[in-house]
């Protein structure tokens, strides 16, 4: 008998310390598979951001670097420009990418920097304990918006794909989700495109992934995945926001 | 049609069927795989036992029904599921 | 004979960086160092290097982090407010033991201050600058020639000790034109070996991780103690200073960079008037040339520390001399540059009063 599904060689043997039902692990598994399937593991350099996925430097079985909060796109730029043969991916959460790292992501996208960005949107600050994120939904409770996010006081969530689609630079922008198998398969395809674009030297790709954070949402894992389908996807519509590959056809 | 225990190319039917293996000590009992994921609904969280980390691990109730679609594996964050065929 | 060219200090830095084999520059415009990125953008294009004008100094220092972690010589330049923004990155880079070169063409501060020459970032440069326990190797050139030569020295020290290095200049040194001798053969970057930490893809080797964090109990403390040993070693081995006319001196001026140039003129004026005055010019500000000062403290009665700030290095002079001597200070903060005459007057007051 042959293993048809199992831990990919793109992940180390280290067991992940994420909470039960956390979406990070699903995305890690997909990236781990792609590193092997696309034959890029041995020339990959990954970014482990500040946040829950800071530990990604132990989980991905390739060269890794851990930069300051939000600076993944800048660090990626430095690596990619000085070693163009490396495949550089910046793994970032919503606090990292859409709050403190807003400038870095916008300018990396605008330069059409030839990197792959994986943006985990779980609408909350995870590692620090559930504070309001730039992607927290209106009315959604967090430890710094205990009455629910008040758009009059705390403004609106930032829709990263829509925001970056306002730029001419980026090559590929897509929003997917990992809350059910159908959407996980779409995420697999999107990430494959995103790495493929870099291999083909097409430029900047960002895959925004709606992901469960049961602990900080105060839900069970099953409630969390349903909440993405029922509520979060309405605010953050899935789909391609830019695909130059299709436009060029 | 294959009968239970009959042979085809020297293999038993059980050996042609996908086998799901739960890595019980890796499983965090989140239950994502048990909720509306398996098309033949053969995954539950073991009600009567816990693993070394204190979680009720996922359990396969009837492997014979498994289609090998891999959905349970795909949604498993650890991943604590392996499928063989 | 080596080629000699009349050059701006800021252009000399660029040529020095390229001659050191560096092919990666990222930076953001800020006065008074704009000639560096402008000239660099042209020269990097000519030599096939990377030049990136970034969205901020924060992005610039992090691009350096990436490029240097990938094993390449990488540098940025900025001026005081921009260097403040880079401190987060420098702390991470120091915490990950990665060598980079940062040039600070200091301007008057605090805040937006002005664009005049200053030395008010001495504390920031010599005390780490950002959060956490760390130091950055800090060089203080005082001529266009040294602006050409120090980038290579800075890269070599940075790589030897896997530590960020700083070059402190100021607008005056940068704008001044002087002859520069291209005193060494340029380093061919392709001949530089791949460092042991370089992120280059894990083909044929174990994967590598560059990071500044360790959450396992006690590990970060261990890591910090190891770095402490490195700092002790640097402090012991890498002190550099230049002494002039100190052998018979009653008073030694301690000054670096532009202040040292002005002080040198003041010392000559004093000598002409019969005062026995010498000049000690720290070339490394960290490690501070304690040994040279400790030695002088046994034979010199007076020290006069001249700085373009409110008095920062003067504290290191007091520490190095263990307060055995009479230590005077003459400072010009906020972009003020001392004149030889005002320093001479200070010398006269000190020594005239003593005789």
From TrEMBL, chain A:
<dbReference type="InterPro" id="IPR051457">
    <property type="entry name" value="2-oxoacid:Fd_oxidoreductase"/>
</dbReference>
<feature type="domain" description="Thiamine pyrophosphate enzyme TPP-binding">
    <location>
        <begin position="57"/>
        <end position="209"/>
    </location>
</feature>
<dbReference type="GO" id="GO:0045333">
    <property type="term" value="P:cellular respiration"/>
</dbReference>
<keyword id="KW-0560">Oxidoreductase</keyword>
<protein>
    <recommendedName>
        <fullName>Thiamine pyrophosphate enzyme TPP-binding domain-containing protein</fullName>
    </recommendedName>
</protein>
<dbReference type="InterPro" id="IPR029061">
    <property type="entry name" value="THDP-binding"/>
</dbReference>
<dbReference type="GO" id="GO:0016625">
    <property type="term" value="F:oxidoreductase activity, acting on the aldehyde or oxo group of donors, iron-sulfur protein as acceptor"/>
</dbReference>
<dbReference type="Pfam" id="PF02775">
    <property type="entry name" value="TPP_enzyme_C"/>
</dbReference>
<dbReference type="InterPro" id="IPR011766">
    <property type="entry name" value="TPP_enzyme_TPP-bd"/>
</dbReference>
<dbReference type="GO" id="GO:0030976">
    <property type="term" value="F:thiamine pyrophosphate binding"/>
</dbReference>
UniProtKB/TrEMBL annotation, chain C:
<dbReference type="InterPro" id="IPR029061">
    <property type="entry name" value="THDP-binding"/>
</dbReference>
<dbReference type="InterPro" id="IPR009014">
    <property type="entry name" value="Transketo_C/PFOR_II"/>
</dbReference>
<dbReference type="Pfam" id="PF01855">
    <property type="entry name" value="POR_N"/>
</dbReference>
<protein>
    <submittedName>
        <fullName>2-ketoisovalerate ferredoxin oxidoreductase</fullName>
        <ecNumber>1.2.7.7</ecNumber>
    </submittedName>
</protein>
<feature type="domain" description="Pyruvate:ferredoxin oxidoreductase core">
    <location>
        <begin position="249"/>
        <end position="343"/>
    </location>
</feature>
<dbReference type="InterPro" id="IPR052368">
    <property type="entry name" value="2-oxoacid_oxidoreductase"/>
</dbReference>
<feature type="domain" description="Pyruvate flavodoxin/ferredoxin oxidoreductase pyrimidine binding">
    <location>
        <begin position="15"/>
        <end position="185"/>
    </location>
</feature>
<keyword id="KW-0560">Oxidoreductase</keyword>
<dbReference type="InterPro" id="IPR033412">
    <property type="entry name" value="PFOR_II"/>
</dbReference>
<dbReference type="GO" id="GO:0043807">
    <property type="term" value="F:3-methyl-2-oxobutanoate dehydrogenase (ferredoxin) activity"/>
</dbReference>
<dbReference type="InterPro" id="IPR002880">
    <property type="entry name" value="Pyrv_Fd/Flavodoxin_OxRdtase_N"/>
</dbReference>
<dbReference type="Pfam" id="PF17147">
    <property type="entry name" value="PFOR_II"/>
</dbReference>
């Amino acid at each position: 008998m042959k293993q048809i599904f199992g831990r990919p060689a793109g992940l180390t043997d280290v067991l992940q310390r994420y909470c039960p039902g956390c979406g990070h692990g699903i995305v890690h598994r997909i990236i781990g598979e792609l590193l092997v399937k696309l034959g890029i593991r041995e020339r990959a350099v990954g970014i482990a951001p500040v946040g829950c996925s800071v530990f990604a430097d132990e989980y991905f079985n390739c060269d890794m670097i851990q930069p300051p909060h939000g600076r993944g796109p800048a660090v990626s730029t430095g690596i990619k420009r000085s070693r163009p043969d490396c495949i550089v991916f910046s793994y970032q959460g919503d606090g990292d990418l859409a709050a403190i790292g807003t400038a870095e992501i916008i300018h990396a996208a605008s330069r059409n920097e030839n990197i792959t960005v994986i943006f985990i949107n779980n609408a909350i600050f995870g590692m620090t304990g559930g504070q309001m994120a730039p992607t927290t939904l209106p009315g959604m409770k967090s430890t710094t918006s205990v009455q629910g996010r008040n758009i009059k006081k705390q403004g609106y969530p930032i829709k990263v794909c829509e925001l970056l689609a306002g730029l001419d630079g980026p090559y590929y922008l897509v929003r997917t989700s990992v809350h059910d198998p159908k959407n996980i398969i779409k995420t697999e395809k999107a990430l494959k495109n995103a790495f493929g674009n870099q291999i083909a030297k097409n430029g900047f790709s960002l895959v925004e992934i709606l992901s469960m954070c049961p602990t900080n949402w105060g839900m069970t894992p099953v409630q969390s995945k349903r909440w993405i389908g029922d509520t979060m996807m309405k605010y953050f519509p899935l789909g391609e926001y830019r695909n130059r590959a299709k436009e060029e056809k | 049609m294959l009968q239970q225990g009959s042979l085809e190319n020297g293999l038993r039917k059980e050996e042609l069927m996908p086998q799901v293996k739960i890595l019980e000590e890796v499983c965090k009992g989140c239950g994502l795989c048990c909720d509306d994921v398996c098309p033949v609904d053969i995954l539950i969280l073991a009600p009567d036992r816990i693993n070394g980390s204190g979680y009720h691990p996922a359990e396969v109730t009837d492997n014979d029904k498994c289609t090998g679609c891999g959905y349970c594996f795909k949604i498993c964050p650890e991943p604590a599921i392996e499928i063989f065929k | 004979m080596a080629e000699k060219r009349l050059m701006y200090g800021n252009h000399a830095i660029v040529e020095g960086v390229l001659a050191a084999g560096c092919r990666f520059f990222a930076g953001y415009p800020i006065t008074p160092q704009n000639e560096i990125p402008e000239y660099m953008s042209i020269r990097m294009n000519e030599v096939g290097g990377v030049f990136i004008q970034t969205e901020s100094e924060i992005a610039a220092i992090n691009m350096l982090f990436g490029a240097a972690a990938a094993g390449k010589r990488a540098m940025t330049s900025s001026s005081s407010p921009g260097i403040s923004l880079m401190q987060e990155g420098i702390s991470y880079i120091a915490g990950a033991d990665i060598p980079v070169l940062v040039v600070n063409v200091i301007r008057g501060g605090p805040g937006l201050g002005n664009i005049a020459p200053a030395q008010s970032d001495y504390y920031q440069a010599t005390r780490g600058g950002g959060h956490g326990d760390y130091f950055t190797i800090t060089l203080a050139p005082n001529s266009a020639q040294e602006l050409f030569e120090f980038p290579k020295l800075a890269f070599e020290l940075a790589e030897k000790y896997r530590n960020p290095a700083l070059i402190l200049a100021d607008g005056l040194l940068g704008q001044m034109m002087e002859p520069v001798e291209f005193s060494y053969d340029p380093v061919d970057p392709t001949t530089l070996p791949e460092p042991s930490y370089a992120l280059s893809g894990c083909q044929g080797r174990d994967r590598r991780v560059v990071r500044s964090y360790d959450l396992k109990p006690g590990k970060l403390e261990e890591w910090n103690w190891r770095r402490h040993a490195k700092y002790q070693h640097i402090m012991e081995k890498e002190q550099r200073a230049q002494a002039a006319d100190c052998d018979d001196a009653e008073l030694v001026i301690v000054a670096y960079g532009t202040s040292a140039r002005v002080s040198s003129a003041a010392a000559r004026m004093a000598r002409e008037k019969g005062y026995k005055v010498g000049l000690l010019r720290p070339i490394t500000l960290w490690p501070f040339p304690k040994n040279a000062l400790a030695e002088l403290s046994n034979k010199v009665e007076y020290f006069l520390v001249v700085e373009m700030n409110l008095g920062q290095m003067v504290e290191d002079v007091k520490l190095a001399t263990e307060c055995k001597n009479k230590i005077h200070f003459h400072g010009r903060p906020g972009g003020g540059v001392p004149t030889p005459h005002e320093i001479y007057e200070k010398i006269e007051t000190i020594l005239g009063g003593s005789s």
